[in-house]
Amino acid sequence: MILVDVHAHMDFPHFSKDLKEVLGRAKNAGMAAIISQGVHHASNKKTLELGAKYPLIKSAMGLYPLNAPNVAVHKEDDDDFDRHSVSVAETLKYIKAHAAEITAIGEVGIDLAHSDDEQHQIQNFMEILRLSNAIKKPVIIHSRKAEKLILDILEDAKHERAVLHCFSGGKKLIKRAIEMKVPMTVTSNANRLQHFQMVAREVPLKQLLTETDAPYLSPVAGERNEPANVRIAVDVIAKEKALTSAEVARNIYMNYQRIF
Ligand SMILES: [Zn+2]
User: Fold this and answer.
1) Whose CA, among 112, 118, 135, 165, lies 20 to 30 Å from 145?
2) Nearest to 162 by CA among 171, 147, 170, 202
3) Which pTM value belongs to this model?
4) pLDDT (average), residues 84-98
5) What is the CATH number of the domain that holds 233?
6) Ligand 1 centroid distance, CA of 114 (Å)
7) Domain that residue 89 falls in
8) Count of domains in the chain?
């Protein structure tokens, strides 16, 4: 079975000791591509190196909204985020310079769960959308408490190169994303989250992708996640749509090829 994981963080320290084994298990499971997401300048550089070293890893470079140095994060959350000193302009310039080596721009987005600084987050996101148009690469979007805002921005900007990662908006917003034809993911913890079972059911197969967000979103609560577990997302889609897993996997792979 051919699998794709369009959102994982292979540069994170969680994988520093056994990355080869993790990638070996992904390969054995049938993985064709893992899109590894950079979250700030140093993470982008490392993701690029991993992409050059391991054929299975496709690099994405981005700027996690709460890592941007110009965004004010809630005081109590500040220690949780890598508040990088490299400016937004410098970070985006580096991405542009390496555009030929990346599959997508990610992880980017807007997070109003840990920050009220809507203004700077929107400003950064708009710049990232301009970059996405300039280098013709899709953005992989994180949205928390900003699901409607993200759809509003994409619609206003008529921006079509976008994927919604781990989209937690309700049914109404999911319907809207379907109408806008924005692809979205089913996650590897969909076995225990009704929300993503609903996404698997409601969203047309042609618009679905699969991801793990490894090391996060494990199918087993509390465990480190890894790309091989993306199979769980495929199985959940198969169950919700009454198709075989092989049929779902084939379609998801076609979507991956079309979108990236
Ligand atoms: Zn992520």
Assistant:
1) 135
2) 147
3) 0.97
4) 94
5) 3.20.20.140
6) 15
7) 3-259
8) 1
